[in-house]
Amino acid sequence: MFKGKLWLHQVSLFGVLGVLVLWSVFNKTFIFDVNLLWWLLGAMIGFLFVFLDRFVYSVLSRPNETLSLRVRELFGQSNFVEGLRLLLAERYDQKELVMRSAMFVVVWVVLAFFTATSVLNLFARGFMLGIGTHLVFDLIYDFVKDKERLDLWFWQIKRTLEPEEKFGFVIVVGVIYLLLAFYL
Question: Is residue 19 helix, strand or coil?
Answer without folding.
Answer: helix
